[in-house]
Amino acid sequence: MREIFDLTGKVALVTGASRGLGRTLAEGLADFGADVVLVARSGEALERVAEQIRQKGRQAWVFPFDLSRVDEIPGLYERVVEATGGVDVLLNVAGIQRRALAKDISLEDWRAVLEVNLTAVFALSQAFARERISSGRPGNIVNIGSLMCEGHRPTTVAYTVSKGGIRQLTRALAVEWAQHGIRVNAIAPGYFATEMTKPLQENPELDAWVKRRAPLGRWGRPEELVGAAVFLASEASSYVTGHILFVDGGWLANL
Ligand SMILES: NC(=O)c1ccc[n+]([C@@H]2O[C@H](COP(=O)([O-])OP(=O)(O)OC[C@H]3O[C@@H](n4cnc5c(N)ncnc54)[C@H](OP(=O)(O)O)[C@@H]3O)[C@@H](O)[C@H]2O)c1
Fold first, then answer.
1. Which residues span the domain enclosing 34?
2. Distance 135 CA to ligand 1 centre (A)
3. Is 155 in the pocket of ligand 1 (CB under 6 A)?
4. Is the CB of 222 under 6 A from ligand 1?
5. Looking at the 3D structure of the chain, how many domains does it have?
6. Has residue 1 got a pLDDT over 80?
7. Residue 253 lies in a domain
8. 105 CA to middle of ligand 1, Å?
9. CATH number, domain at 143?
10. Nearest C-alpha to atom 2 of ligand 1 is from which residue?
């Protein structure tokens, strides 16, 4: 039965692979056999991740790219397909946060968050699906949502709206592309200790809030998302699409 989780022979493109959750997930997919295309802005950091993946005996390709340049995503994708022969799994992890109350946030910050967290995810998914449909091959998209797919914490309005968008984008694309053999799901992590959440980890009140609110009583560790990503990226989830899988230490169950 273990082979249903096997990703050998699959090419996975992971955005946000230079650090944090994306880096851990890129290395995790490689542990289960995938060759990996790494995308983020920092080429040097991506090279370090690629080296780790090559040491596991897998192929890794590095594509430094700023996903806020949404109009250039189709060109990026063409180059990726040329280099790899085609991508089987798209893992949309890259994301940004701009913290401000709804009454204060600038339109510039609002647009920046929506562009990277939502519009770029759509553009990359569209490029992926067009290639899969024209080559007649199946595919698999895994987006990264958040607890903000469900609720809001003051100071994160643009982020909340972007992740609410990810929830509905995941469902919309799952419905439209199932007929082409493309499944679309999302992982919605609770609070995980990464650079993005450093300001929260370093604030004693917010740190205590996270530990009190999550029934498992602690922050998530990035490697605790690998199982969910491998499940959704592999044949193990062959009848799952349009699903938002919360990996949140029990957060949402807790009143
Ligand atoms: N940490 C959490 O608790 C948590 C919880 C729920 C959801 N999430 C989501 O998980 C994802 C990863 O978060 P994280 O905590 O790992 O954050 P992180 O440590 O800040 O990493 C963000 C990643 O996104 C990349 N990125 C940012 N802007 C980019 C751009 N314009 N173009 C290309 N790549 C870009 C960064 O690489 P470069 O800087 O090199 O470009 C980096 O690899 C995000 O979607 C986030 O919303 C995180």
1. 2-244
2. 31
3. no
4. no
5. 1
6. no
7. no
8. 20
9. 3.40.50.720
10. 192
0.90 exceeded by pTM: yes
Percent helix, strand and coil across the chain, each rounded to 5? 50, 15, 30
Whole-angstrom Cα distance, residue 254 to residue 250? 7
Is 42 part of a structural domain of the chain? yes
Find the 20 Cα to ligand 1 centroid distance in Å: 7
Cβ 184 vs Cβ 126: under 8 Å: no
Cβ-Cβ contacts under 8 Å for 78 (sequence gap 6 or more): none
Residues whose CB is less than 8 angstroms from the CB of residue 107 and which lie 6 or more positions away in sequence, other chains included: none
Residue 205 banded pLDDT, cuts 50, 70, 90: very high
Least confident of 61-65, 115-119, 196-200: 196-200
Query: Which of 137, 138, 156, 136 has its CA nearest to residue 147?
Result: 156
Q: Report whether residue 41 contacts ligand 1, using a CB cutoff of 6 Å.
A: yes
Query: For residue 218, is it within any domain?
Result: yes
Of 23, 24, 41, best ligand 1 pocket probe by most atoms within 8 Å of the beta carbon: 41
Question: Which pLDDT does position 203 carry in this prediction?
Answer: 96
- Is 77 catalytic? The answer is no
98 in contact with ligand 1, CB cutoff 6 A: no
Q: Residue 11 phi/psi, 5° resolution? A: -105, 125
Which alpha helices (H) appear in 115-246, and where do they start and end?
A: 120-135, 157-177, 198-201, 204-213, 226-233
19-72 residue pLDDT tens: 999 999 999 999 999 999 999 999 999 999 999 999 999 999 999 999 999 999
CB burial readout 207-243, b (16+ within 10 A) else e: beebeebbeeeebbebebbbebbbbbbbebbeeebee
Does residue 153 form part of some domain?
yes
